[in-house]
Amino acid sequence: MRPAGMPINKEHEGRMNRRWELDTLRGLMLVLMFVTHLPTRFSSMLGQPFGYVSAAEGFVMLSAFMAGMIYTAKGQRDGLPAMRNAFLARALKVYACHAALLLLLFTVIAALGISRDEPALKNLIGFYLEQPMAGLMGGLLLIYNPPLLDILPLYIMLMLVSPLVLEHGLKRGWRGIFALSIVLWASAQFKISENLYNAFVALTDLQVPYRETGSFETFAWQFLWILGLWMGSATATGAMKNRRPFPKALILACIAIAVPLLLWRYIAGQVPTEGESLINHWFDKWHLGPLRLLNFFALLVLVMHFGEWLKQRIPQFAFLQTLGAASLPVFCVHLVVVLLALSIFGESTPERPVWTDVLLMLSGLGSLYLAAIITLRFDAEANPRPGAAASR
Question: Which sequence ranges are marked TM in the entry (predicted)?
Answer without folding.
Answer: 20-38, 50-73, 94-114, 134-161, 173-190, 219-237, 249-267, 287-306, 318-346, 358-376
